[in-house]
Amino acid sequence: MEVGSESSQVRCDKFQAPVIPRTRLQVWFIRICSSILLWTCLVQLVAVGELWHPKFFTNLTNRISWFTRFPTRDEVVVPPPQFLPLVAARNYTSNGFLKVSCNGGLNQMRAAICDMVTVARLLNLTLVIPELDKTSFWADPSNFEDIFDVRHFINSLRGEVRIVRRLPKKYNQKYGYKPFVMPPVSWSNEKYYVQQILPILSKYRVLHFNRTDSRLANNGISRDLQKLRCHVNFQGLKFTPQIEALGYKLVHILQEKGPFVALHLRYEMDMLAFSGCTHGCTVEEAEELKRLRYAYPWWREKEIVSVERRSQGLCPLTPEEAALILQALGFNKDMQIYIAAGEIYGGEKRLAALRAAFPLIMKKEMLLDPAELQQFQNHSSQMAALDFMVCTASNTFIPTYDGNMAKLVEGHRRYLGFKRSILLDRRKLVELIDMHQNGTVSWSEFVDAVRISHEKRMGQPMHRRVIADKPKEEDYFYANPEECLCEVTNCDNSLGDGNSTQV
């Protein structure tokens, strides 16, 4: 038996296939190919899945991209907030291409981009990535992709409107095609775009809006379109990873030291020149500001009486006035004050009174290494994006002027849970300041008057003020996008009887 078994084993060995050992290179090659195949399948699954369940897959891809990022050693990783959900993807035949050239500073352009996406959605157009202003006072050479995450912008709005990076070649001016160029009428409603603009597209196929500031009405817009404006603003327009990383770092440095106030001190040369506000300036400074105003022909208002402008509440507070108001509102010298602004006119000399009252004055240039800010130098919009992030995250936000940044930060803070934003009544304040400084009103009376006049100006829920036929005077949509807020917070329950704002 043993011999037979042995001979049987020998016969089986004769017919056994030889074993060829795999080399280490072959093993790694198989692993790499398998990984590529698996990732390709995953990407295809997500792409197809977005057509069926866009909300689920968008949230999934956002989380994947967040957790697979490798932060730098000094980067503070803060999870992105949860924003408005995407609606089901729309299938539509494009009526043409919409090209836009935004004008103004960062936040004016931001609001304009939201409006232009909404117009593209209304007219079933394909939107080309917007061009940013490079010819204004700031002369910022930044492109859209230098400030905003382009891929995120396109993907997050995929369910609403088609967005492309550039026009197809056949519509390129290099090939002889000339789009129809025009500025749309300011504060226009849906009827204007459907009846006046859509017929132009049927003829030209490509329409170029060369001005975009305030071209969509605040009110009288369907709720779906109003919510789309919020969707673009709060979800679609995400800053680049470089800007977000540095912005989060600034916030983290400030938060480690305690609560802080973001003071949007709009006491900058361009603001003073174009508003004509020279209160507190020397005669030489006032003349310099006037020359700058005359140097820009597009600024139509030339002769301005500063005293009248200030008494009407149309001037930003000076640093000295801001110090008085902060003290009257109850902030003490131990409070961190982050100055969100460009270069203050008059430099550190003009900040002396404010710094004396609040020694913990902070600016991004003081909190960050110069090398970290170097990539943003001479790019005012990118610097403004950093300030925007800090203002949005601050414990209290106080703008000294109600420009575009102040309004958009106010609206963003309302969206994030009605975070406290003290919206100064400058007309009342300059009157009180003058009365206190000439001895008519004591300090205690001044403090009481300031606090009482701002009890209902803390960014709490309220209806947007509507003024028929006066869109420039009514409340700005992006400062109080109530259509996007009151589903999660019942605004009506938070309003007092005397707080109705319908005019």
Give a structural overview:
- By secondary structure, the chain is of the alpha/beta class.
- It contains 21 helices and nine strands.
- The strands form two sheets. It has a five-stranded parallel beta sheet with strand order 3-2-1-5-4, with helices on one face. The protein has a four-stranded parallel beta sheet with strand order 8-7-6-9.
- α14 links the parallel β7 (336-339) and β8 (361-362).
- α9 (241-256) packs across α17 and α10 (269-275) packs across α11.
- The longest helix has 29 residues, at 24-52.
- The N and C termini lie far apart (111 Å).
- The model is unreliable at 1-20, 46-87 and 494-503 (pLDDT under 50).
- Residues 421-456 form the EF-hand domain.
- Pfam families: O-FucT.
Summary?
Helix content is 46%, strand content 6%. By secondary structure, it is α/β, with parallel strands linked by helices. Helix 2 runs antiparallel to helix 3 (54-67), helix 17 (380-393) packs parallel to helix 18 (404-415) and helix 19 packs antiparallel against helix 20 (443-452).
Task: Please give the largest β-sheet.
Answer: 5 strands, parallel
* Individual helix count: 21
> Residue-averaged pLDDT, rounded?
84
Number of strands: 9
Order of helix and strand elements from N to C terminus: HHHEHEHHEEHEHHEHHHHEHEHHHEHHHH
Morphology call: globular
Structural class: alpha/beta
Helical content band: 40-55%
Strand content: 5-15%
Strand order of the largest sheet: 3-2-1-5-4
Computed over alpha carbons, the radius of gyration is 29 Å
Segments where pLDDT lies below 50 for 5+ residues? Answer: 1-20, 46-87, 494-503
Q: Give the CA-CA distance, first to last residue.
A: 111 Å
GO molecular function: calcium ion binding; glycosyltransferase activity
Subcellular location: Membrane
InterPro entries: EF_hand_dom (IPR002048), FucosylTrfase_pln (IPR024709), GDP-Fuc_O-FucTrfase (IPR019378)
Protein name: O-fucosyltransferase family protein
